[in-house]
Amino acid sequence: MGIRIVEGRRPKPGDEDVYIFNEFTRKKYPWLKVDQPAPDDNLVIGFCENIKYSSFRNDDTNQTMAFLIPGKKFAQWGWEWRNFVNVRISAGADKVEVIRSLQKTMEKFTPGHDFNFRFMDEVLDANYRNELRFTKQILLFSLIAIAISLTGVFGLTMFESEYRKKEIGIRKIMGSSTTQILYMFNRRYILILAGCFIVAAPFGWWIGQHWLQGFAEKTPVTPWIFILSFLLVTLITMITITVQSWKNANENPANSIKTE
């Protein structure tokens, strides 16, 4: 199955009644040793890496796991306890033909039983489908919110630049440069953005932490995520304001202050 062996060896043809445990089992029971019998007298031949067999909401790394090669000692158990069989197929294999072959093979061992074949990629897709859908929804609504915000900033800047057209002309006559005029417009909106960021960042951090509590393995919510988001939104806003205010900032002051 492609699971890495960290100590010991893989099963060989002819092995019977042998164990391969995961690393967590070795840490929990340090008296388990390679080439020594387990408490039930079955031989331990190796230890493998911890593997994840469910979603990220479950901590599989803190679960004991054993791979067993059954032999004569387990013959009396019968086949009823073996509910699942994992088979690794090569990349690009015909899945329909693989299922047919597996069905014929399993029919030899348990004739008359119904078999339910599932592919691991489909199982993983089912486990994470809701999570992927949720992240896509968050991304979509975030883009919509940014678009609405930029539309509002564009409209407000257009109104303000026209409303303060005479003020801009007077400032130009008094010696203000185009850069100073643009700074005057941008400064106001940067302060508004900073105020919104101070209010929204703690709320966003709380939502992120609350969502991550549902996962066994989670990434930390670092301040850099919020800082980079703030800088990106600020840059887009400044570009929008500068583009909109550039015309009035460079217009002839005489045209700006003349009376209709």
UniProtKB/TrEMBL annotation:
Q: Locate the transmembrane regions by residue number.
A: 138-159, 189-212, 224-243
Membrane keyword on record: yes
Q: Which GO terms describe its molecular function?
A: transmembrane transporter activity
Occurrences of domain ABC3 transporter permease C-terminal (ranges): 140-253
Pfam families in UniProt: FtsX (PF02687)
Cellular component aspect of the GO annotation: plasma membrane
InterPro entries recorded: ABC3_permease_C, Macrolide_Exporter_MacB
Its membrane topology is listed as: Multi-pass membrane protein
Give compartment(s).
Answer: Cell membrane
> Which keywords fit this entry according to its UniProt record?
Cell membrane, Membrane, Transmembrane, Transmembrane helix
Protein name stated in the entry: Efflux ABC transporter permease protein
Q: Which organism is it from?
A: Phocaeicola coprocola CAG:162
